[in-house]
Predict the structure.
Amino acid sequence: MAVIGIDLGTTNSLAAVYRNGKIEQIPNGLGEYLTPSVVSFDNENVIVGAIAKECLVTNPGETAAAFKRKMGTDQKITLGEKSFLPQELSALVLKQLKEDAEKYLGEPVEEAVISVPAYFNDNQRAATKEAGLLAGLKVERLVNEPSAAALAGRMKLEEEGVCLVFDFGGGTLDVSVVDIFENIIEIVAVSGDNQLGGNDFDRKIAEYLCASHNMDFDGLEPGVQAALLRLAEKSKKELTHQETVLIHYELDGEDIGVFLNNEVLVKCCEDLFARAGRTVERALRDSGYHAEDLADIILVGGSSKMPVVPYFLTSFMGRKPTLAGSPDEIVAHGAGIYAGIKERKEDLKDILLTDICPFTLGVEVNNRSGDRRSIFSPVIERNSVLPSANTQRYTNVYDGQSKVVLRVYQGEEYYCEDNLFLGELELPIQPMPAGHACIRVTFSYDINGILVVDACEGEEKNTAQKVFISQNLRLSKQEIDAKIKELETYKNRNGRNVHSDLLLARGKRVFAETTGLNRQHIGELLRQYERAFADGDRENGVRLQKMLEDFLEQFEK
Ligand code: ADP
Ligand code: MG
């Protein structure tokens, strides 16, 4: 049974597996590696990925994207008559990836290592684990995205030292400073702008096109805006390989067009770059390092592919960054390597699986001030490198006390009641005057969130031990089981005919976006194609499929 690594992205998701000494990316049903993190409903059918992305235009009321931003909150996302927690929608994406992986590997996949942004708090991490459980995946390990990127990058670069990871995705920029030393990857500082990504560039390009024809982008209908944004994204991607691109669009019978090159892009997006610069500055300041101290600046995320990004960073930081091999795939590679480490693959055995503990763990102590609220005494501090162990000494409170009850908490607050209670452990002690007992409490916290608490009194006459599994899940076992059942009632339509389903979805989207003769023509082709499909008329189906494909290619050129 394979363990896979998953980059569950805001915009795109990807799974990878470590096999035969190397990392392999797992293709989806369309033969592509990146699966858009978009979920759409069509009655009781669920659609995930590229087809769902088309539905953002044709069926926006029942389609959701970018729900990763809401992970860890109780905000429900309403799709038609149904409503979902963010982790349930994420589970639908994970289910799709799991299914694609099983098909690709030819064996069941029941466990995954999922990457999460380094700044994700406990709630967001718990929601990600829940998403895994709801998708039928055991998720013992989450890995920080910059650690995964650094690990995968390092396997190639053989770098050691402090690196800055600049992860520029579709909707977020995450900048992290990581220390890679002797097979340990440690996060030193993180900073981010969760409203800055490739989408903002698309918008600036669309606004530029409109402004050059004295139009206001904000004043356009949502459907037209969506079409322009799609066009802008396409042009932006073309600029990766081309000096200049012509963007043109037929708006109300009028042809509007403008030339775009990287110089213009830099000008239109000046404020976006300024924000990116501030994010980098903050991460560096918090880390205590300067640009010249860094062993490397690693660029990851799809938006780092824009040539203007390394160009900007070179002038901003006074040194050249390294663009990761496949910037939008490298986090998944890292997660896949972590999955391999977890499976104890021989060739990965000397890489240590490390991470930091994102919260503090400790015990309750008596409040001597007369305030009835008990106080939290930290044993393992947040940001400790895992696995971590620490011992603290306590004593008895009353004369003749015969036992102590160690109440274990997780959190950062002064009063225990403001932290999360994990459980308790009882230790019998020798009766003696107050303040004379020597009680040693040792916490050992490992990489899988398993906390072992050992307590002993005096010369180990009395000892006690208890294991706490801090999965930090917010939902109960029953709730999870009920939700798994509910998600199973939705039939996944990304089944046999994904290619033709995508073509139909794309045709319907273009139909929605156009007017006039083109629209009539597409409508006619769609009707004929669907009919041929329903009648099982293969020959005509193939012919119409080709016609529809050619027309859409020509139309969206
Ligand atoms: P996320 O981490 O948010 O899931 P990705 O790392 O996959 O996202 O990045 C998605 C973003 O990358 C999108 O905004 C997309 O337009 C952009 N992108 C992908 N390829 C290119 C390219 N060749 N040139 C410019 N931008 C690109
Ligand atoms: Mg990403």
User: Anything to note?
Assistant: The chain has a mean pLDDT of 90.
